[in-house]
Amino acid sequence: MSRDTQLKERWERLVDILSNQFSQGEDLDLDAIIYLIGVQELGKVHREYKKDEKLNLMHIAICRLLEPYGFYEFDYFDEDGWPHYIVKEQLPSLKAGEQSVLMKEAIVNYFLEREVID
Questions:
Q1: CA nearest 76: which of 64, 63, 66, 85?
Q2: What is the pTM (predicted TM-score) of this model?
Q3: DSSP 71
């Protein structure tokens, strides 16, 4: 099975699992899944977030997802428990489709590590 086919199948399986768990079966998009990862990484799942906090949660998720690729490194938790990352390497210029593939791959790897999918 090609790497692209495997990624596509894992991505679809993951979207099904998360959509059934968090949106009554309506497919979650990439941004929604990134937001969920941010909430998971913060560890404060049962609360409402303001718009700017939601953006910060997505930033946390992106940093965490791209950390294994060498783009970010965890730095510290602040007094409110929010994780902070430092930029290790600038992201390359990618076309929208390439960005999407990179993020999907990183998300699939994140959930493989947590044994949500195999």
A1: 85
A2: 0.92
A3: S
